[in-house]
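User: What would this chain look like folded?
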Amino acid sequence: MAETACPDCAIEMHQIERTTFTGRDMREYQCPQCGRKQIVDCGKALWQILSEANEESDKE
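Assistant: Here's the prediction, encoded as structure tokens.
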């Protein structure tokens, strides 16, 4: 089953929110049939990766 498929209905969930303010790419999905919501951590946010890379290059 795909990461964004509803565990109850087995249909594709819709992305309703995405946030990266914590430095993580967090996405919230909701099932259009039963309304179940699920939060998925997709890893480090791109801005966080670039920020860390810039900090490393500034140290050199």
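The first strand starts at residue 14 and ends at 19. If you want, I can go into more detail on any region.
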